Hints:
It comes from Bacteroides gallinaceum. This is DUF4493 domain-containing protein. 5% of the residues lie in helices and 49% in strands. By secondary structure, the chain is mainly beta. It has 3 domains: 198 residues, no CATH class; 159 residues, Jelly Rolls (Sandwich), CATH 2.60.120.1260; 197 residues, no CATH class.
Amino acid sequence: MFRLNVRPLAGVLVLLLLVGIMSCVDNRYDLDRDIDMTISVGGDYLSIPGGSTDTTYLSKIITEGDLLVTDAATHEYQLARRGLVNVEPTSVGTFDIGEISSSGFHPVVIVGGGSAVGRGSVEKEVDMQGSFSQTVFGIDEALMEVGDVGAGVPAKLSIAFAFSGSLNYQSVIARNLHVELPYFFVVRACDETKGELRGNTLVLDGVVLSSGNNDSFATVLEVDGYKFGDAAGNGKKVDKANSSIEIDGEVNVSGSVITVFDGNLDANTSLSFAPSVVLDAMTVNKVTGIIQPTIEVEPTNIGLDDIPDFLKDDATRLEVTNPVVAFGTENKLDTPVEFDVTLVSHRNGKTAPLATVTVDDIEIDAGCITAIILSRLGKSGYADAEHVKNVKVEDINNLWERIPDYITVDISPSVTNPNYYTVELDRGYDMLAGYDVVIPLSFESGLNIVYNDSICDLNTDFSDLDQVDFDQVGLQFTAVSTIPLQLELKPENVVVKDIYGQQIEGIKVTADGRKIAESTDGTTPVESRFAVVFTSAEAGVLSRVDRICFKVTAVPGQALNVPLRDNQWIQMSKINLNVPGGVKVDLN
């Protein structure tokens, strides 16, 4: 506050009065009417020195909040916001494969016709083919091709031989009898298995298949799943119209059986046998293949409505050197996920966006946490690594050129992997995702920041001059600054108000056009001289001034890409108010 002391003026008045008292007085002489009692004080200038202000750090000018923060290590100002992106759990539905029985096997005569004396035997070579097929419905739409499927509980596979005929025999024994199962069975032996399992072929050698009286033979294997192929193109294509796959395979039985009997054989005596293979129903809980599930992501709003006052003005424009938007996500699928992201900035509730930025074909790595860093320069504080990807987005600053109230983030992920990978069915694969927006306040040449402030309670100074005739007041000071921005006060950005908050008309504001120079490195202090003049042709108007409201425009000048830091400062020194030509005091 600058106060003009009027006591010296009062002293002049007292002195004049004393002179009048001690002199002879002609009562016929009217001082008010006959003598001009106006005097001048101050000569060419009446100057009131105001001293200097305290050093003001940006930490005092710029208030931090939820959005505006400083880096603890560098003291640099940043607009920072982080949050979560809601991604619905991704799942692929399970399906059942019903019981499958072999078909195409017809009874084969292994003993028939002829005659024998006493104990005898007949060996018969067999070579039989059957089929193993089924249409499986209810395949999830995410499945394009099925390479293999797995069951949570193994299904039992029963292999049986049934005997029929009129021959009275003692036994039927297998000799190197092979039961070759479909290639796609993932089969294994169990405690109930008879014979030897070699790959997908059960070998029965020396195994008694029947002990007479047409009793049958059965053995059991366990099937853990189906394996149709191990690479794209070798599996079962999904019929998308019917959501189905076709299972087709062959069962071959080859080798010899020896029938042992007593007595004579005649033309009407025979013995036949027929194999059968039955696989129990299976619930599939795991699939390997070409799988392209749908991933649902809710649109996300990044709120920026709590921006600092000095960035809120409609005239504010930011040309930020390297704003960064980082997305981090944990992809639990064993496949890369591609996504496109559209960022749209909004302000003041208007439906039309301020700016739209789209980035396509971003890839999230399989089975890990991936960081995707979108920045103007393609560089950031996140170093490139195996799962950290810096993506250059040259137009990303368009989102912040005018600070928006919020930014909508629309992410469209997809799985386009044409190769095989594995998923567990009916499992919800969470894809945890979040964003981290960091806008360092270091600027390019397009910056235009408006900072609003005011000088208050001036009436306590100017009201002392309400009996003084003056028409101009000047404010001069020297600014010392380490702030890397030029400061400019334009006359049209100055409003003068009275003690009631009403704008005072009739006051002309002029500035000398000089700018407060910036520190080119944000550290070295720079001095600048600055002046503002208030003029009014109407008597007494300037003495009514109580508040000077102004907008200081900050522009980059030559200090490009130098960040704002909370320990940068400005100080006003050599401040003084002056009245050009002095003041006139009316003593009439």
